[in-house]
Amino acid sequence: MKKTLIFVMTAILVLVSAFALADGKTLADIQAKGELVIATSPDFPPFEALQGDGSVKGIEIDIMEKVCDALGVKLVIEQVDFDSILQGISSGTYDVGVSGISVTEERKKNVLFTDPYCLAAQAIVVVEGSDIASKADLAGKLISVQTGTTSELSCLAEGYNVESYTQNVDAELAVLNNNVDAWVIDDLTAAEMVAANNAQSDKKLVILDEALSTEPYAFAFQFGSEDLVEAVNQTLNGLVEDGTVAAIFEAFDAPYTSPLAK
Ligand code: ARG
After folding, report:
1. Ligand 1 in reach of 130 Cβ (< 6 A)
2. Residues 160, 87: one domain?
3. How far is CA 45 from CA 62, 93, 164, 193, 253, in A?
C-alpha cells in the first residue's frame, strides 16, 4: 500500500515537472507566433538606451535584430525594470531577457543562458576630488547600485554599505548629489554615462582604474526553451566569430572584449 502510494506520488511529480519544463517556449512556438518578445531595462547605454522618440537603441538590440532575422521572426521590445526581468523570464511573461545580464551560478538556477557574447567589469565611479582612489578605500563607505544587479551583489559580498535604486540614473544622481560615496556600475555603461555627465555638467565624475569583478554577458530564456537557446547560440556564436558583434560595439564607439579572449 505504502509502496503504491510512493509510486503514484513519484509518477505525479515526474508528470508535473515534465509539464513545468515543457512550459518554456520552443523554437517552433516562437516561429509559429512570428515574434520574439524581449524584456529590457533601457537605462543601460550603450547596450540598451531609451531614445527621445520612445524607441530603444543599443548594442544588444542590434545583436537581437540579427538573431531574429536568422530565426525569421520579428523583434518585440518590452521595457521592464531590471529587477523584474529574470522573474518575468522564468515565469514566461517574456521570451528573452536582453539587459546586459551577467551570467552567475545563482541566476543559472532560474533561467537558461545563451553562450556569452562579451565580457564586462564592475567599475567604481566617484566625484572628482573624492578621497576614494582604489577598491581598498571603499571599506566602510556607502555605495549606490542598481537594484537586483551584480553590482549590488558584489558590493554586498564585499561587505560594503549599499543604497539600491531601481533606475540606473538615480544611482548616478546619488553619487553626483553626494548622497553616497561611490557608484558601482558595469564598465561600458559607466564610461558612457560619465562621459555624458562630464560633457554637460561642472560636477565631474571619475572612473577608477581598478574594477571590482569581470563578468560575461548573455541572454536569458525560460527553462524548457533548450532548442530555442541552441538555435540562438548558433547565430550568436557565428556573430561573435565572424566579427559582427565586434563591429556592432565599434558602431557604438565601445571597446569590445570577446568572451573567447582569455
Ligand atoms: N550586468 C549587471 C547584471 O547583470 C547589470 C545589468 C543592468 N542592466 C540594465 N539594463 N540596467 O546584474
Report:
1. no
2. no
3. 13, 24, 19, 7, 11
